[in-house]
Write a structure and sequence with these properties.
The chain is 62% helix and 9% strand. It is an alpha+beta fold.
């Protein structure tokens, strides 16, 4: 058995893809729940995710145009990677937003020789004070007491550690005011009069306080604890006892019917939202540029060194399968140790792997076409080509399907009673099943064709979504997750290589930016918005079925339009691109000295320039497509004769 030959020229590219996709899979899946930990609400999260696709759609093709215009993919890519590290680190230090908390107001019992026993309730709501019914009692739990003596110790309340020293007492726990209340966590029933409002409190005179014991017949120890006398002799003067209480729910229905609760917020929620909003947009812009330029770089290197694009993507998906669960495990481990959710391992993993990516990019030897002269003009012409328009529409549609399932599948599985580790297992399943398909993706592209692989992706989305809608056991999602081999892995290989074949000389990064922007940007955002709206209005099962029908409809439309009409347009367009490439080759050779030009025409002569490599690739593709056209015509003629 002959061992496969390792293409050493592409080994640095494998390192770049492994490090970058390991970095992104360590952080990006956890950013949504990190937002929740920061206190960003669901509504605020929706606002952020509405703007992210828009910025990605605009900035990613723009970065591709800049790279094509300068002809320096490496420099733009390295700047983008390092910029994403800066903004990821900044996101880690965004201060958490104060979540509104419903808390009980402060409730204090005041009594002494010069004041009538009364309860003061903190008024932290709008409107009048609550009215208590005098014919019923209100359960309260004592939290602690202190003594206040005017003119002593700057009129501060004294601690309650020495309150039980003699027989003097001012707070009582029964109707005839005989016994004082002092033990912490002791429960009483208070009977209160109608309120008289103050500036910041609602005050109620106390008409009776009744102790509540754990048993119907309290023992002597319980009675002694509840009757501990309160001493104010050390302070002297007319002192007042202040006891802090917490309202308890009624035994009947477990509610708090009498005292409103306070909505407390501490901190600056506006600062947290807007700071995270701008940092996240900047991070997303540079991360998206990295994704696009890595695809363009990979395609350029694969074409220059005779490799297979899918086998390079193999290392990207392998990194996702490895680093995402490892990061999740470390987050759980650190959070358990610290007592709160700490997502810093995800950011640290991202920063380290992204810096490794930048170093590996610096070591790359990338041969790209020379800078295009009229990038914007050629780009406008490109968007007028029917096969390119159809590709963008289909990629947008597939991105919508992907955005919907990535955003809401976990919520659906949790509603079905899924354990948490099953959610992570779904990601691992899709990655592991997709690895062999990626390794042999060149065979699928050659034998099946890029357009057919896109149609298969739509078909499997149709099956996958309808399958999800009919399961009741969350474990049945595993077979449908395995379909990611077609709905994502092979689909992206087909879309990227198809876009590269349709790209004229000098517009490789530009068209890859458009493909990435339509799929990962506006497509994902549209799918999340439309799917989320349907889930909230009609439920998850119906939403999955509607999205499945949308995928099936695009499958039929694209198939019906492509084979009778678009395929012919694509052949004409490829011939036009090949003719332009031949003309560029002629100009390039005329610009060389005669002896070099003649040597370039000889078989086996020295290495070609990047432009010649690119042009020869277009000519080879055109030759192959002409042969395919002849074969198709022969098959059609044979079918007609038969």
């Amino acid at each position: 058995m002959k061992c496969p030959r390792i293409n050493r020229s592409l080994f640095p590219l494998k390192m770049v893809l492994f490090c970058w996709y390991g970095a992104s899979s360590s952080l990006i899946p956890y950013m949504t729940i990190h937002m929740k930990e920061l206190g960003i609400t669901v509504e605020e999260t929706a606002i952020i995710y509405t703007f992210l696709p828009v910025t990605q759609l605009v900035c990613t093709p723009l970065a591709g145009m800049i790279a094509d215009k300068l002809g320096r993919y490496k420099d733009v890519l390295m700047i983008s990677v390092l910029s994403s590290v800066v903004f990821a680190t900044a996101i880690l230090f965004v201060p958490p937003a104060p979540n509104p908390r419903m808390e009980h107001p402060d409730i204090n019992l005041h009594c002494g020789p010069v004041v009538l026993p009364h309860v003061a309730v903190e008024k932290c709501w709008g409107g009048p004070c609550d009215v208590f019914h005098t014919d019923r009692t209100n359960p309260m739990r004592l939290l602690g007491c202190s003594v206040y003596c005017p003119g002593f110790l700057n009129s501060e309340y004294l601690p309650s550690k020495k309150l039980c020293n003699d027989t003097r007492s001012y707070c009582f726990i029964n109707d005839d005011l005989r016994y004082p209340l002092i033990e912490n966590n002791f429960t009483v029933q208070m009977r209160l009069h109608e309120p008289y409002p103050g500036e910041s409190t609602c005050q109620y005179l106390v008409s009776g306080v009744i102790p509540v014991f754990d048993t119907d017949s309290p023992n002597e120890e319980d009675l002694l604890k509840s009757m501990c006398p309160i001493s104010v002799n050390e302070a002297g003067g007319n002192c007042t006892i202040k006891c802090n209480f917490q309202q308890l729910p009624d035994d009947d229905n477990g509610t708090f019917p009498h005292i409103n609760r306070c909505v407390r917020t501490v901190g600056n929620r506006v600062l947290t939202f807007w700071l995270y909003f701008f940092l996240r947009i900047l991070f997303n812009i540079f991360a998206s540029i990295c994704l696009t330029l890595l695809d363009a770089t990979a395609l350029a290197m694969v074409e220059a060194h005779g490799g297979q694009y899918g086998r390079q993507r193999f290392w990207a998906i392998l990194a996702q399968a490895v680093f995402s669960p490892v990061t999740g495990y470390l987050v759980d481990l650190l959070s358990e140790h610290r007592g709160y959710m700490d997502y810093s391992p995800a950011f640290h993993f991202y920063n380290v792997l992204a810096v490794c990516t930048a170093i590996a990019v610096w070591m790359l030897s990338v041969d790209v076409p020379p800078p295009a002269q009229n990038v914007i003009k050629n780009f406008k012409k490109l968007l007028q080509v029917p096969p390119v328009i159809a590709l963008m529409i289909v990629v947008f549609w597939l991105g919508s399907m992907w955005g919907f399932v990535e955003s809401f599948l976990f919520l659906y599985l949790l509603d079905l009673g899924s354990p948490t580790f099953l959610l992570g297992l779904t990601l691992t399943t899709g990655a592991i099943v997709g690895l062999p398909f990626l390794h042999e993706s060149d065979w699928f592209v050659r034998k099946v064709g890029q357009v057919n692989l896109l149609l298969f992706a739509l078909l499997f989305y149709f099956i996958r979504f309808f399958g999800y809608s009919y399961i009741y056991n969350p474990w049945w999602c595993i077979p449908f997750e395995a379909m990611e081999a077609f709905t994502y892995h092979l689909m992206w290989v087909a879309a990227a290589t198809y876009g590269a074949e349709l790209a004229p000389v000098g517009l490789l990064a530009t068209i890859q930016g458009c493909v990435g922007g339509f799929h990962y940007g506006v497509g994902r955002g549209s799918g999340s918005f439309a799917g989320g709206t349907m889930m909230s209005q009609f439920g998850a099962r119906l939403a999955f079925r509607v999205m499945g029908l949308a995928s099936g409809a695009m499958l039929i439309v694209y198939g019906v339009v492509y084979y009778p009409w678009l395929r012919r347009k694509e052949r004409e367009y490829r011939k036009h691109v090949a003719a332009e490439a031949a003309e560029l080759e002629l100009h390039a050779r005329n610009a060389l000295p005669n002896n070099i030009a003649e040597a370039g025409n000889c078989t086996g002569s020295g290495p070609q320039t990047p432009e010649q490599t690119r042009v020869d690739g277009h000519l080879a593709n055109n030759s192959n497509h002409n042969k395919m056209d002849d074969d198709l015509r022969n098959v059609e003629n044979n079918q007609i004769k038969s």
